[in-house]
Amino acid sequence: MKGLHGKILWIDLTKKEAKSIEYPKEWARDFLGGRGLAARILWEYLPEGADPLGPENLLIFAVGPLTGLPLPSSGKLLVAAKSPLTGGYGDGNVGTTASIELRKSGHDAIMIKGRAEKPTMLYIEDDKVDFLDADHLWGLDTWTTERKLRDEFGKTAGILEIGPAGENLVRFATIISQEGRSGGRPGIGAVMGSKKLKAVIIKGTKDFNLYDEKGLRNVGVKAYKDVVKSKNYKFWMRQGTMATVDWSQENSVLPTYNFREGVFDGFKGIDGFRMEELKVTQRGCPNCNMTCGNVIKDEEGELSELDYENVAMLGSNIGLDDLRKVGVLNRLADMYGMDTISLGSVLAFATEASEKGLIEDRIEWGDYHKYKDLVADIALRRNDLGSLLAEGTKRASERIGGGSKDWAMNVKGLEISAYDCHAAPGMALAYATSPIGAHHKDAWVISWEVQTDRFAYSRDKAMKVIELQRIRGGLFESFTTCRLPWVELGLNLDYYPELLYHATGIKYSWDELWTIADRIYSLIRAFWIRELKGWSRQMDLPPARWFKEPLSKGPLAGKKLDIEKFNKLLDYYYEIRGWDERGVPKRSTLEKLGLNFVVEKLDSIIGLTP
Fold first, then answer.
1. Residue 357, phi-psi category: left (phi > 0), alpha (psi -120 to 50), beta (remainder)
2. Alpha-carbon distances of 412 from 85, 117, 150, 198, rounded to whole Å
3. Which tens digit of pLDDT belongs to each residue from 304-354?
4. By C-alpha distance, which of 175, 195, 193 is closest to 184?
5. Contact at 8 Å (CB) between 579 and 570?
6. Cα distance between residue 86 and residue 532, in whole Å
7. Which CATH number fits domain 242-418: 1.10.560.10, 1.10.569.10, 3.20.20.10, 3.30.565.10?
8. Which residue, 553, 562, 567, is CA-closest to 255?
């Protein structure tokens, strides 16, 4: 169909071979692109039971039918693989010029298998792929790496790279671009490192293969204007996501001391107003007119790009109330190439483990200098504690024991992002059922939840989570564009089917788009079941801390989740999705969604409900 090229660039690092292959036309129609295409590729081409850090794992870069087009915040690229952190499906998106260059290369995705003999980088120009030596870059941080590559390949090249964390197989290593754009929380950077692949440089010269370029530009211009006309636009441009610090404090959901509490006494030292005092510039993704990357000078005088998630996890969650020091930890994470959310979680986990005497190292809440050392220890795996924390909170808790599983704050192995859910069952459900593990991007339901009946465990709340998952995780991740124009500034969702029509020539109804989103979620769940050789609803439960330990501070002191009511909420969720009481898609659901190709495999592994 128009709007996509219908081709995948297939690369084998072991054999140093590359070729452009066509994929079935119905994949584009039924899965759109981005996340949908990546999930379909993994199901089709990944050997069942592949080692996430072995040469058989597939590293995927994918774009969608709206990526890179002249419309709000379209400069996104999806990275995906079988996750070394969770063992299941893993992905993330990166705002980068590489998204546009990949689109212009004439491909909708790059699929990389194998392992290079020595550090390698790929230079891709349309159908041509060069396997280049990267010995001189191995061991360098991401910022230094990209600057050297820009000197060699030019300012317009799309560049994606890993840092020492990816090279050392830190299980939450990410892929970095443009000195602060980070994607692939479930360890996609470690997959890249396991393949000895330091960087990918992309240049494209082809057109976008659009159905109606003029019509798309006209609609895109209107959408850009609506973004700027939003009543929240000026404040958004001042603070971006950093405004969420005050909001989270006010609503008792700001993660504090490893998610023990929802309020932090020192929140004023890390909030959006403090950021405004320190702000020196802004950065944004390609094609964005609502830039959210607020840049400060950190404690060491270097530039650090901040948003809510990294500030909350590297601030209140570890007891650090100085934004300039938070900025240092954030910048180092980007330079080493590892996820700031998981990093903040493992630092908090280590602090609590020290407090409880489960590890020998002495770590105090808010100990900036100790945390700074630990960041390097983790990225370089340079001592026992660093290596332990590089495995993530789930594996670390399994090793140290002492009841630490209850406060290893993850779901399916992926660390929870920055919202405490002692008093937010809907957001807890969103974390529990996110297709990559605990992440907010699929269903940020907490804003709606606190404005309604926040303590309810209702069917309507389960339905709201699914509604948001369809829009955010199903559609935006597959279009592939940023969700923030809609989420933060209220851009009308009806723009997107119209833009999709001008790109592809297909008039998708909302019912058809919801079906596509549901198809993607059920396929990803099928992938988990195949790779884990089974499933239990325990996989869809948040950490025990939220059920066992009530909040002790703030206006909601005494609140905690109710396990029986939460299980009922989970039942509602499964029922609406057409999954059985285990969280396994029913045979009838798979057939209705056109996923017949997974039925036999799932039935042989777990036995499907009719």
1. left
2. 9, 32, 38, 28
3. 999 999 999 999 999 999 999 999 999 999 999 999 999 999 999 999 999
4. 175
5. no
6. 10
7. 1.10.569.10
8. 553
pLDDT digits 0-9 by tens, 74-104: 999 999 999 999 999 999 999 999 999 999 9
Please tell me whether the overall predicted TM-score, pTM, comes out greater than 0.90 for this model: yes
In this structure, what token pair is assigned to residue 203?
A: 């240049």
What phi and psi, each to the nearest 5 degrees, are found at residue 22? Answer: -85, 145
Q: What is the pLDDT of residues 176-217, one digit of tens each?
A: 999 989 999 999 999 999 999 999 999 999 999 999 999 999
Specify the CATH number of the domain 429-490+509-606. Answer: 1.10.599.10
pLDDT band at 1 (very low <50, low <70, confident <90, very high): confident
**Partner residues linked to 202 by β-bridges:** 124, 158
> What DSSP letter does each residue of 359-399 carry, written as one string?
SSS---TT-HHHHHHHHHHHHHT-SHHHHHHTT-HHHHHHH
Token look-up 């490192």 returns 193
The radius of gyration of the chain's CA atoms, rounded to the nearest angstrom, is 22
Q: Which CATH code for domain 7-203?
A: 3.60.9.10
Q: How far apart are CA 169 and CA 72, in angstroms?
A: 35
256, pLDDT greater than 90: yes
